[in-house]
């Protein structure tokens, strides 16, 4: 029997993770990878993220039963353009993973006609890291995966088929329309990235003269700006696509800042307390790390004294319980006395077991 063929276009963090996720449940399918960057393409093959690499998009597309476009969103427009001129398989499904949906779904609707079924996709998990070396089969486990079918309810069979292809990602699928998608994601993902980048740029400008700000930048600044390390190309495209939503959010943001500015100006002690209480209550009620637009990396933060052998003693304790670590990193040093170690695990269970084991010896936190 002929093997089902998947074409993955764009083999970075997300494309690579989707390929690995598909293989979990469709071991026998053949995954062809295509990427403009030869290094990423070669790496993807070497790391066995794909079965074969292709340098001929057109001929690979005509062989595919499923085409996944995982490039920055402006590139996705060009790729849909290229695909529409080809003789594709009759029941082919085309999907993407881009962070915006309106432009891409509009183009697909207008250009693909009856040629293929297009279902926009957006896994709501990721990282500030890029490239196929950061790809993980479990990246989307328990995260929401938003689906936006170009033909709305008429494509429900194809939506089920696509969910079947993506089952191994372990994601939770939710179908919505493109307008709702771009507004929702504009608020909870795009806008925070704009704020993080602007905050970092502001501090960078202020820091130019002496360099003291970056030297003393502590947990708060680091927490709120991690995402400012994300791919600039990816974010350029997202902002160009979600322009209207972001412009309106920026106007509303001015008003929000105006409120706290007034409270400070008036030395309104109760008002300031209420402002922070309200935000704390909302933040504390957010669902845990298992779902939503929060990366599914299972990190545990451990306060450690800055002395020789501390990492070895932590890894020894974990090894005694046979808990595997996927990464370990010192992320912060306070006054050269205490450090914070970030230890990453493969699953929530491993993280909890590790916290139990390390708890008697070290101060540990799930969030920093
Ligand atoms: N990074 C995240 O957290 C995240 C989360 C969800 C969705 N997304 C979306 O996923 C998409 C990919 O993001 P990523 O983080 O994997 O980026 P990435 O930089 O890791 O990978 C993108 C890959 O696309 C390739 N590429 C670019 N243009 C191409 C073209 N015309 N043809 C073929 N290959 C091309 C690049 O060479 C690169 O290997 C973006 O649309 C982004 O909005 C990202
Ligand atoms: O965790 C991160 O680094 C992310 O930015 C992931 C994140 C987000 O949560 O905003 C970024 C863009 C996506 O489209 C979806 C997820």
TrEMBL record:
Annotated InterPro entries: 6-PGluconate_DH-like_C_sf, ACT-like_dom_sf, ACT_dom, NAD(P)-bd_dom_sf, PDH_C, PDH_N, Preph/Arog_dehydrog, Prephen_DH
Keyword ATP-binding: no
The protein's Enzyme Commission number: 1.3.1.12
Database matches in CDD domains: ACT_PDH-BS
Pfam families in the cross-refs: ACT (PF01842), PDH_C (PF20463), PDH_N (PF02153)
Ranges where the ACT domain occurs: 299-368
One of the GO biological process terms: tyrosine biosynthetic process
Reactions the enzyme catalyzes: prephenate + NAD(+) = 3-(4-hydroxyphenyl)pyruvate + CO2 + NADH
Domain (Prephenate/arogenate dehydrogenase): residue spans on this chain: 4-294
Pathway annotation from the record: Amino-acid biosynthesis; L-tyrosine biosynthesis; (4-hydroxyphenyl)pyruvate from prephenate (NAD(+) route): step 1/1
Domain of life (superkingdom): Bacteria
Keywords in alphabetical order: Amino-acid biosynthesis, Aromatic amino acid biosynthesis, NAD, Oxidoreductase, Tyrosine biosynthesis
Record GO terms (molecular function): NAD+ binding; prephenate dehydrogenase (NAD+) activity; prephenate dehydrogenase (NADP+) activity
Family: Belongs to the prephenate/arogenate dehydrogenase family.
Protein name: Prephenate dehydrogenase
């Amino acid at each position: 029997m002929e093997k089902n063929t998947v074409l993955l276009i764009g083999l970075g963090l997300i494309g690579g993770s989707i390929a690995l996720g598909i293989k979990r449940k469709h071991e026998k399918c053949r995954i062809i990878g295509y990427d403009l960057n030869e290094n990423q393409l070669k790496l993807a093959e070497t790391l066995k993220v794909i079965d074969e690499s292709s340098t001929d998009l057109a001929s690979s597309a005509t062989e595919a039963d499923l085409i996944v476009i995982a490039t920055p969103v402006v590139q996705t427009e060009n790729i849909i353009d290229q695909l529409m001129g080809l003789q594709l398989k009759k029941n082919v499904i085309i999907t993407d993973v881009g962070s915006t949906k309106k432009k891409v779904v509009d183009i697909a609707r207008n250009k693909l006609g009856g040629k293929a079924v297009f279902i926009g996709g957006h896994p709501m998990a990721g990282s500030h890291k890029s490239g196929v070396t950061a790809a993980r089969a479990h990246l989307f486990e328990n995260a929401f995966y938003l689906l936006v079918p170009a033909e709305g309810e008429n494509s429900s069979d194809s939506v089920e088929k696509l969910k079947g292809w993506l089952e191994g990602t372990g994601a939770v699928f939710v179908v919505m329309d493109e307008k709702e998608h771009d507004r929702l994601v504009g608020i909870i993902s795009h806008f925070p990235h704009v704020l993080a980048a602007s905050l970092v740029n502001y501090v960078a400008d202020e820091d130019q003269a002496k360099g003291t700000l970056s030297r003393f930048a502590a947990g708060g600044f680091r927490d709120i700006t991690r995402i400012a390390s994300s791919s600039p190309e990816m974010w350029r495209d997202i902002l160009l696509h979600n322009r209207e939503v972001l412009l309106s959010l920026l106007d509303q943001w001015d008003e929000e800042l105006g409120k706290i500015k007034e409270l400070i100006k008036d030395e309104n002690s109760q008002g300031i307390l209420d402002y922070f209480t309200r935000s704390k209550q909302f933040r504390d009620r957010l669902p845990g790390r298992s779902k939503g637009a929060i990366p599914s990396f299972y990190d545990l933060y451990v306060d450690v004294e800055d002395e020789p052998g501390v990492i070895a003693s932590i890894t020894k304790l974990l090894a005694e319980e046979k808990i595997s670590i996927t990464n370990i990193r010192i992320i912060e040093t306070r006054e050269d006395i205490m450090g914070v170690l970030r230890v990453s695990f493969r699953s929530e269970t491993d993280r909890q077991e590790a916290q139990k084991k390390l708890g008697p010896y070290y101060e540990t936190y799930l969030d920093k």
